[in-house]
Every structure is written in structure tokens, then in C-alpha cells.
Amino acid sequence: MRVKRLIAVVVALFMAVAAAGCTTTVSQVKILRLSINQTAKHPSTIALQHMSERVSKATNGRVRIDIYPNETLGAQAETLQLVKAGIVDMAVISGTQMENLNKDFTVVNLPGMFDSVDQQLKVVNDNPVMNDLYGSVRDTWNMRILGGFTQGTRSLYTRSDKTIKTPADLGNMKVRVQESAMMVAMVRAMNGSPTPMAYGEVYTALQAGVLDAAENNEVSYHTAKHYEVAKHYWQTNHLVGLDYVVINDDLYEGMAPDVRAAFDKAWTETYLEHAELWKKATEEAITAAKDGGATFHTVDNKAFKAALEKVAPEFTKTESSKKLYEAMKVEAAKYAGKAA
Ligand code: GCU
Predict the structure, then answer these.
(1) Which residue(s) pair with 34 in the sheet?
(2) What is the best residue among 153, 157, 220 to mutate for testing ligand 1's pocket, by most ligand atoms within 8 Å of CB?
């Protein structure tokens, strides 16, 4: 199934490129193709559009980034393969997918790793504590991690009107999770029945009743329209998620020094802008989802926290994961104290 889809994506990509009359380079303009599974209105898509404008301006129009939203180039699992092969140049990839390349990425995604988005961003961007982890995919996946965009705090949302206060209330509901062993364990710990699935399939699965629930941040809940088919958002705030912005490493290494400098500068400005856009987008998403009929509920956060405590030890058993976990906790402690 996955291979078939991958072939379909590659064919679609080549057709799109042929239809546009371009390969990567058209009359001296280098076009980088970026894949993202979000809509055009999502703050990550908007920030990356601005990155394209920044790069284009700084290189006098020699380089730009064309963004393909809505999984048009494939879901994240396929996109990873396409970036590795250099068929897609850049992508936004959830931390959960990175776990499948190197299990140590799981550490970054653990419930309880961060208390707030601000704290998370201080640890994951421009911080040497991440160097080994990020560098690990250069040799194995020909991929460079530019850095992270926050996914905000993630919470549960349900189709039914049943009140959720504690994990016991989940009563084995079928909860969509990202394709990650840790996410499966996390939903089990919350007393749900985990159902791994690509992001783009969640709306229909909720609508059809294949799923009882899903978990995501408020921005995705609104922009992906999940609120239309799962009207109750329970503020479990069970973890602070992270997306990585990645680029094919051969491409990055092959950039002329002035282009690379412009690109790096544009990335720094972009991730800082994303953090600002995110705050605003979260507030707007809550208002818009409410206007669309969704209800936001508080839960017994202590009960959820207690249920989730067993997850981190389960995923920090190897030497390397334990070391990373401890080093990240030391960094996180420096920036503690801000509410999630
Ligand atoms: C967030 C995240 C995506 C991820 C999605 C998911 O929206 O930004 O990268 O794919 O969650 O739950 O799959």
C-alpha cells in the first residue's frame, strides 16, 4: 500500500514538475520543493512561505522555495524517503516520524519533557545539546535538520459527548496516534486504544466513526477541520510536540557559500517568526473552533500526568537515550517556570 502510494507520489511530482516546465533549476532560478502536510493557512506553511521570500530577496531571486501543502507530495513517512533521495528538497516532519529513523528522537517527544512551548524552543533550536541527535541523520538519511517548529501542546478530542475528566473516562476509546511506538504507549497509558494513522486520513476516520478520538494541538484541530467531526476538545496538554524542518543534505552542502549564508539567516528569522505566529494562531484557532461548534473542556491534569509518568522510563532505557534525556532535562531546567 505504502509502496504504491510512494510510486504515485513520485509520478505526480514528476508530472507537476513537467507541467510547470521546470526541473529544479529554471533559467538560473533554483527552486527548492518543500512538502508539508498542513493547509496553506497553517502558521508553519505561512512562516515557510516567508522563508522563501527572504531567501529569494537575499539571493536576488536566484533561489526560492516552492511549498506543496496538504500532503500533495505524500504523507510524512513517504516524504522522508523522497527527501533522502533528493526528489523532494525540503519537508516539515513530525518528531514522531523521526523516531523511525533514530529511536533517540523519541526522547524529544516524551510527555513531561517540556512544560511549555517557550522552554521547548530554547532547548531544540540553536542549542548544542541537540547536535549529536540532529547530526545522526546526516550520514544515515542524507538529511540535515535546520531546526524545529513547535507543535504546541497536544490534547485529546472526541466525537461523543461523554465527559473526560481522568484517563479512566477514556474507557478504551479508539484514539488516532501518529505512527510511533511511543505514541502508542502514551495512549495506552491514558487508557485509550491507540490507532496509528497518517494525519491526512484522520478527518474521514473520525467522520466515519472508525475513530472515537484523536489528539493534536488547537491549530491543527481547527485548520484540519477535525473540530467539525470531533466537537469536544479536552485540555489534557499531555505533551509539547515538535516538527522538524529538514533539507536534503547533498543539496545543502552543495550551496554556494553566499546562498547558504542567506538560507541560514532566513531560517533563523523564520523559526523566530513561527514562534510568534504560533501564539496568535492558537488563540485564533480556539475562537474559530468555538464559533464552529466545538467546546473546550478542562480535565484533571494531575490524573493524566500521573498516568503518563510510566512512559518516559520505558523509552529511555538505552545508554544514548538516557544520556540525551538527562542532558535535555538540564537544559530544560534553565528555562523552566513558564506556563504551557
Ligand atoms: C501536528 C504536526 C504535524 C503532524 C500532526 C499529526 O499537526 O504539526 O507535523 O503530522 O500533528 O498528528 O500527525
Answers:
(1) 67, 90
(2) 220
pLDDT band at 340 (very low <50, low <70, confident <90, very high): very low
The grid coordinates listed for 271 are 523559526
Note the pLDDT tens digit of each residue in 213-264.
999 999 999 999 999 999 999 999 999 999 999 999 999 999 999 999 999 9
φ and ψ at residue 50, rounded to 5 degrees: -65, -35
157 C-alpha to ligand 1 centroid (Å): 14
> 219 CA distance to ligand 1 centroid (A)?
10
End-to-end CA distance of the chain: 39
pLDDT tens, residue by residue, 2-15: 555 555 555 555 54
User: Residue 199: CB within 6 Å of ligand 1?
Assistant: yes
Mutate to test the pocket of ligand 1, among 117, 182, 216 (most ligand atoms within 8 A of CB): 216
Does residue 76 line the site of ligand 1, with CB under 6 A? yes
Distance CA 5, CA 24 (A): 23
Q: Copy the grid coordinates of residue 220.
A: 491543527
Is residue 303 classed as helix, strand or coil in its secondary structure?
A: helix
Q: Among residues of the chain, what percentage have pLDDT more than 90?
A: 90
What are the DSSP calls for 63-88, one per residue? EEEEEE-TTTT--HHHHHHHHHHTSS
Q: Tell me the three state secondary structure of residue 310.
A: coil
Place of cell 507530495: 73
Q: Which of 37, 197, 221 to mutate to test the pocket of ligand 1 (most atoms within 8 A of CB)?
A: 37
Contacts of 256 (CB under 8 A, 6+ apart): none
Listed residue (36, 39, 68) closest to 220, CA to CA:
39
Structure confidence at residue 337 (pLDDT): 76
Residue 16 pLDDT greater than 60, yes or no: no
Q: What is the dihedral of CA 143, 71, 160, 311, to 10 degrees?
A: -10
Our CA angle for 71, 73, 74, nearest 5°, is 60
